[in-house]
Amino acid sequence: MIFLNCLFGYLALLIVVKWCTGSKADLYHVMIYMFLSPTENLGDNQLFWGQKILQILLLLMAIVAVPWMLFPKPFILRKLHMERFQGRTYGILRTSDADLDVELESAQNHHNDFNFSEIFVHQMIHSIEFVLGAVSNTASYLRLWALSLAHSELSTVFFEKILLLAWGYNSIVIRLVGLAVFAFATAFILLMMETLSAFLHALRLHWVEFMNKFYHGDGYKFKPFSFSSLANEEE
């Protein structure tokens, strides 16, 4: 949460501030040079007072959050495991030596199940995957921005090269044909195809980039409720 909010939560805040103030600041330039040159003067891209200091503080917090995700969990799990099996090696006294040997062997096996290096490597993989995935997946949403630019360019082309060009003639037939072509292009290309394309891209981004932040597909296989299976289990 600290890593995401210090970087992309801050980007969402900048978007809202830009909307409210009507600023012409380039947010892409702000976010890129927040990493490359955090101490550089923002100039026209400054949205509020103290923005540079806040960006340096958020960047430091994001950097500290990476080892924070990596190191504490393996050591905490190791400490909890040691505390859990601290007194188990003595076993429970039984009526025979065979029972005592079985108890000692069982406790020793549980104690040896914990592999610190495996836990540490697993946590390191998850930390690297989270950091890289947070950056790359969020950057993937720029596809919607690219689609909006394509939509804007197509709108300009249809308006200037079809409607205005046809309206420059004195013939009413050419004007009607140009108006019909412009209306067809607007309805079927801009309104239908472009909207469907943006919807499909947004659906794909939510399924792939957003859901993998919290959905892993683990657990038990779903079995729908059935009275017949319930009756068989009771029998």
Give the key terms.
235 residues; mainly alpha
Short description:
The chain is mostly helical and 235 residues long. Helix content is 75%, strand content 0%.
Folded structure, characterized:
The protein has 235 residues and is mainly α. Helices cover 75% and strands 0% of the residues. The chain has helices at residues 2-21, 27-36, 51-70, 72-84, 97-112, 116-140, 142-167, 172-210, 227-234. α6 packs antiparallel against α8 and α7 runs antiparallel to α8. Residues 89-93 have low confidence and may be disordered.
Determine the structural class based on helices, strands and strand pairing: mainly alpha
The portion of residues assigned to helices is over 70%
Radius of gyration: 31 Å
The number of strands is 0
Low-confidence stretches: 89-93
One letter per element, helices H and strands E, the order comes to HHHHHHHHH
Mean pLDDT: 79
Shape: flat
The end-to-end span amounts to: 50 Å
Main β-sheet, in a few words?
Answer: none
Total of helices:
9
Write the layout of secondary structure elements.
Elements: H1 2-21, H2 27-36, H3 51-70, H4 72-84, H5 97-112, H6 116-140, H7 142-167, H8 172-210, H9 227-234
Helix pairs in contact: 1-3, 3-6, 4-6, 6-8, 7-8
